[in-house]
Protein 1
Amino acid sequence: MIQKTVGSSIKSSTSCLSSLLLVRRNSHSRIRGYESNGQVVEKKKQHDGLFLQKSKGQHLLTNTRILDAIVRSSDVRPTDTVLEIGPGTGNLTMKLLEAAHHVVAVELDKRMVEILRTRVSDHGFQHKLTIIQKDVLKTDFPEFDLVVANIPYNISSPLVAKLVYGSNTFRTATLLLQKEFSRRLLANPGDSDFNRLAVNVKLLADVKFVMDVSKREFVPPPKVDSSVVMITPKEVKPDVNVREWLAFTRTCFGKKNKTLGSMFRQKKKVVELLSLSKVGITTNASDVVEEGDNRVLCLDTDASMFKERVIGVLKSNGFEDKRPSKLSHGELLRLLSLFNQAGIFFHSLPMDLHDY
């Protein structure tokens, strides 16, 4: 079974090693548990039951058919090391251990870790499992071949960014995501859902839809349905400064349906780009000072001239009336290159995972 969160800490330290229960209250004050074959059964409520917190994104997948389908779609090979994020109590982990050479599971909740260790040991797979009990966003991953993960909404973007833009190389990442988030990830130029997330991820990877999963398949059920997608890193990646690209798309997709001409005529945006182009890391143009006589730059004059340069790039290359949401990766990369050649830059201070 998959835990729906890995990035936030769990306050409760209640243990349930004896019963290995997956808990969900119902109108009859009973609790759902699991058997070794993955079938869900009803058990009476016990004081030491493992209570799952919706507020923490803890939703465990219980449907054996769907778990099997995820493993099949992941194309796990007998020689693979699989990175599993949020293993929970281990239903998916057990299936991955049967198919793979080794599984590295990242899990923050120590209650889940204890249950997982016991369950794996009972099946004789302990030599094939490594558990990392840390926050997945703050953890350096060991080497792995592919990823299987069930990601809570609140860390979906930074975790996808960590996988796609991180230093680890891998074959594929099969991710169970909130349905709305997966649709945004799958969107293409011209789609109403096309967004900065999709344009950044698809710069370096291809994204494929696998299947939808009903909210009824989770314990406890979340409010919305989920979808499985597969992310495959591209073999050939574009030659672009990643920080510059990410800052550029943040600027363009802040108002993705406005024309570029309208967007870059805004005084605030012009002054911001002027400061970045003058000093590289200054974020406030009023801080820019001329060398020598320490005279503050005349922002009105400089901004006016700089705006002409920006609009000139757009006009002369046919981008003035185009909208970011309609542009392909090739067009966006070309525009960024044209801006940089004209001395117009977008990135300043280092970004963290939430800026992707």
Protein 2
Amino acid sequence: MLERVKASTSRLSSATRSPHFQRWSPIILVLLTTVFILLGATCFYLFERDPQEMTVRKWYMNLTVERRQFARSISSRIFNDTRNLLIIIDREQTERVQTLLVESLKRYEDKLSIVPPSRREWSWVSSFNFAYSLLLTVGAGFKVPVTIGSQIFAIFYCLIGIPLFYSTLALIVYRLISPVLKWPSLTRSRRFVLMLAVFGLFILWTLLIGLCLYYQVLNDFWLSIFNAFTGSLTVQIPSPVHITTCGVLFLNFAATISVSLLLLILLVSLSIFFPKELLLQETDKAVEEKLERLTPPPKFQVIVDEAGESKLTTTQ
């Protein structure tokens, strides 16, 4: 059994070192991460759909009961705190007064901007946003799964998904920037300038996200800038009370681009201080392989001397 495991491990290791796998590994990881997020979104949707529906129904039922009880309490106090007087005098009048009180309470609740639980809080798109934000490690404290099965699934989902997501993102960024960093003309000082340029691009991108939040979601400029920077640094995103489901999806994708820029800054910084460990060894090896391919094989010629003996010599 142990020998089979060793043989399977060796075959897997040799397969991962093959040129074809290294060439297609970013695409394979992107597809694997996408399928993983879709699977997580579907599981969260199935776990939380019915409990959320029951929560919404219970909330509205309790609200209706509280309104009725409060209206009865107020109607009895209007008439010197006599509970049965209205019923003895005119029951229809009592019901009419209580109905008017309930309507007044509804208008008062509208002025208070009370936000009821939404039936779409755990729709499939919202579940996709939640699954995506978990892998992105964006703070989503405003929304947590309530069922035990969903909570247990979320733990294993994060343990597997977060390394998968960030390793995929880091590999894509490395594959895109490594040909540029291998340029012979890109000296250490120019790499430092490149790092500053990428950092400036990160700041501009974050400011652009803040402006989108300011004009589309929030009316406070500095609050929009704060939420843009915290979202770009995977700290938190605005509450869903102020932003739609599509807006949360946009912020998740925007935060992904921001994280990619931060990884790019990290890679350029490592190329400044550790160029040999990061790039040059692979560069020298690639140059040697290229030279071997370009060097023509030697040509041989058979020469027969006067004694009839043949000799093999190389020709230029």
Protein 3
Amino acid sequence: MLRHLDRGASKNREQLTEPVKRNRVDQSSKKSIGRNEVQSWTTAVNQSLHMVWQKIKRQLILVMSFLLAALWYCRRLYAYLAQLLKWWSRYLQRKFKKNLSVLAEVDLLGYCAREWKGETKQAKQMKAAYEELFWKHHIKYIRQVRRDNYCALRAVLFQVFSQGIYFPSWMKERDILKLPEKLLYSQGCNWIQQYSFGPERYTGANVFGKLRKCMETLKTQWTEISGVKDHDERGNMCNILFSDENKEYKLYEAIKFIMLYQVVEAYEQMKNEQKRVPVLFSLLFARDTSSDPLSFMMNHLNSIGDTGGLEQVEMFLLGYLLEVNIRVYRLYKFNTEEFQVNYPEEYHRDWQEVSLLTEDDHHYHIPIIRI
């Protein structure tokens, strides 16, 4: 009977645990199915990515190869262009320095030591004169000016432009572009056709067209540079202008012609006794070689820029027409009253001043004062 009861109890326990076992089996099956689905989805994604990668891999390699090649080429091109730019810059600097008619400032005593190395009487005098300029007149630097027959005109006009000095008062009242025609038609100076442009001896009927171009260049450049307020910018503009031979020589020929115009005007006033003229014109007409405007042009003015430069009387005239006091240190006149002179002697106190330095009254340089 006890056995029968044990069997019944076992049977009842089996009946109670059977649903639990089936429930565990069902849950295990579901988990297995879920894992299989995740694995299948992951596999599918990996396969898709692999297929896409295989497709773009070759193209990506080609693109990267192209980019690397382009980068290498650009680096080579950059290096080549940098070298080319460096070469071109050197070329321009050499050309600019070669063409520059007014060089950069250098130490005055250093310049003297290079130029006057001997112990001759003249060398000692020059050394003493340079030391006098350095210590007494506070001239510490010098700008060398190209040694040709435009030298004095160049040294003066460069300073007029670089200092921003504007047109003289008499030019503001006249249109300088019309001066050639005025001398021809109003005053009957048909001999102007014999005017020489430096080495260009004779131009005939073309003289008026050439003179007008010279006057236009002078007026344009003077107006443009004098309108600049910044000193350094004006200096750069002057360096560029005075390295352009074509424009530079037009400036000098325009100033030469204005000198002629002033001489004609003074001659007519003296002849008609209209008004008192400055003493410099009396000195000019007192010379046998410049007793009238024509002889002045033929014997003096035409040679400027060709075979000769400015003489002292022409220096007076230059200062007068520009309305500037030209102070000249004449080193070969050291220890005399003529060591320092002013052109013209009759200058107004309100005129601006430019300074020149010369060793022989033929070639001029620009002294730089530093106090």
